[in-house]
Design brief:
The chain is an alpha+beta fold. Among the domains are: 11-181, no CATH class; 342-432, no CATH class. It is built from 18 helices and twelve strands. The structure holds adenosine monophosphate and magnesium ion.
Length: 495
């Protein structure tokens, strides 16, 4: 095996930020999937990833040479309530390296055994949730959405108890850093404010080098996180992604999508859709995500107050305008997304109403979110008659045809006002509106087969979702709405 050499930086911060904890081996590990593209990006060649020792490494059965696996400590606001200590309860960092492009990357094994932060849980992850995280993080990456990545999926016959008895799995996930808002909250609420600066300075030096050495670096990093988080929320909304557990411990200090649990993509459009069965009150419903992103930002800024001023008043005065960037940053990112999804080249006065009327039509019809945008790309600017939508698929999605017939001429007029070319616009829209997303029922089919010993559907979905915008012949069923019997699928925090 030829492994990239390690360059520990977060690990070098040492205790008490993280502790060395060995991974715990699993019996009979089997490499169920390897992300060959990501492996190459990380500088892992085929000889290395094909070696049996590599499968053992990805299972946590052997350590990465020269690196002691580590678990880090963090806190977090879970469903609005502060929990003073969480931490990597089942994720262990097994290496910090530079990838082939020279970017720092950290590799973590999720499900590789208990740590001092496991509380009363087992440190394991089940195959079901591991397949979901593995497929969705790569699907999000292919959608162009910042996210942690997934390098390898390992299964083991080791039984793991959840509501029923399941089997264990490990996902090797990859990100420049797994630092979360909660890492900063931990030290702030413990009153050990002197621990914040080394953590922030590590993050800035390694991941925001453009701010390194600047006396105002902390404010600049936080402003950047606000902007990235706002953009990320807009990107989630635009593809109908519901995260499900937007606790501050599940929010990345790099603005990445992190911790895939009971996530879901919208099928029938319901703005108040709650994807997580555990989220009874709908705190993290689809239409609340952008607001929760802002709420989380205020929690991060609160935790970082000691970095922002010598007196509480000065710190608050510095923090407030940074938090206040969020609404505008989100609004402009969201407008840009809706504008592109509608195939408009630029944003003009009146577009907001056009977008809102269209979203209202989708909601009142409970139209399939993904399919509807795709159908819209087939509209022509030529014919204003209602029949002009015959063959686009929209008649099958939209129930309130009267309202649609009132909206359509306005949309067409708007397109004509910028000399929109039908074929060119359709191409742009199809590069913005995915045809394939990881709907729950698709993930469920791959899980059921993998649980029966056949990982081929994982591979099929992985390959399909790597090109979510392309028409892929033979895969129409994967772009269809869920069959009636699949609509009851419930996902919860159990993982
Ligand atoms: P999550 O809801 O998955 O973001 O997890 C919240 C906290 O619980 C984190 O500190 C996790 O590390 C921890 N946790 C979740 N599941 C387990 C498990 N099976 N074993 C140990 N810790 C866990
Ligand atoms: Mg988490």
């Amino acid at each position: 095996m030829k492994l990239p050499s390690i360059t520990p930086r977060f690990a070098a911060l040492g205790e008490p930020y993280s502790l060395p904890i060995p991974t715990r081996p699993l019996p009979n590990p089997r490499l169920l999937h390897l992300n060959v593209g990501l492996a190459a990006e990380l500088g892992l060649d085929g000889g290395t990833t094909g070696a049996p020792e590599f499968a053992a490494l990805m299972a946590g059965n052997t350590p990465w040479p020269g690196f002691d696996a580590r678990a880090s400590v963090y806190a977090g606001h879970q469903f609005g309530q502060f929990v003073p200590q969480l931490g990597d309860g089942r994720a262990l960092s097994i290496a910090e390296i530079f990838d082939a492009a020279g970017q720092p990357q950290e590799l973590q094994l999720k499900g590789a055994g208990p740590t001092p932060y496991s509380r009363h849980a087992d440190g394991r992850a089940v195959l079901r949730s591991s397949i979901r995280e593995y497929l969705c993080s790569e699907a999000m990456h292919a959608l162009g959405i910042p996210t942690t990545r997934a390098l390898a999926l390992v299964g083991s016959p080791q039984p793991v108890r959840r509501e029923t008895l399941e089997t264990a799995a490990v996902v090797c996930r990859v990100a420049p850093s797994f630092l979360r808002f909660g890492h900063f909250e931990f030290w702030y609420y413990r009153g050990e404010h002197e621990r914040l600066r080394p953590l922030a300075d590590h993050l800035i030096a390694r991941h925001f080098p453009e701010f390194d050495g600047d006396p105002d670096r902390h404010a600049r990093w936080l402003t950047e996180v606000v902007e990235r988080t706002a953009r990320l929320m807009a990107q989630w909304q635009a593809v109908g992604f519901c995260h499900g557990v937007m606790n501050t411990d599940n929010f990345s200090a790099l603005g990445l999508t992190i911790d895939y649990g009971p996530f879901g993509f919208l099928d029938a459009f319901d703005p108040q859709h709650i994807c997580n069965h555990t989220d009874q009150g709908g705190r993290y419903a689809w239409d609340r995500q952008p607001m929760i992103g802002h709420w989380n930002i205020t929690k991060l800024l609160q935790a970082c107050l000691p970095l922002l001023g010598d007196t509480p008043e000065a710190a608050v005065a510095r923090a407030q305008p940074i938090a206040d960037c969020y609404p505008d940053a989100y609004a402009s990112a969201m407008t840009a997304r809706w504008t592109a999804k509608l195939g408009l080249r630029e944003t003009r006065d009146g577009d907001e109403a056009l977008i809102n009327r269209w979203l209202g039509l989708l909601a009142s019809s409970k139209a399939d979110f993904t399919r509807s945008w795709r159908h819209l790309a087939r509209i022509t600017t030529l014919d204003d008659s209602a029949d002009a939508i015959a063959g686009t698929g929209l008649r099958e999605e939209i129930l309130d045809l009267a309202a649609f017939d009132a909206w359509l001429p306005d949309y067409r007029a708007r397109l004509r006002s910028e000399q929109s070319d039908d074929a060119e616009r359709a191409m742009r829209m199809n590069a913005e509106n995915p045809k394939y997303v990881l709907r729950n029922h698709l993930a469920q089919a791959a899980i059921a087969r993998a649980e029966a010993g056949d990982a081929s559907e994982v591979e099929r979905l992985f390959t399909l979702l790597a090109r979510p915008f392309d028409d892929q012949p033979g895969f129409d069923a994967y772009a269809a709405e869920p069959p009636p019997e699949a609509r009851h699928i419930e996902v919860s925090c159990s993982s």
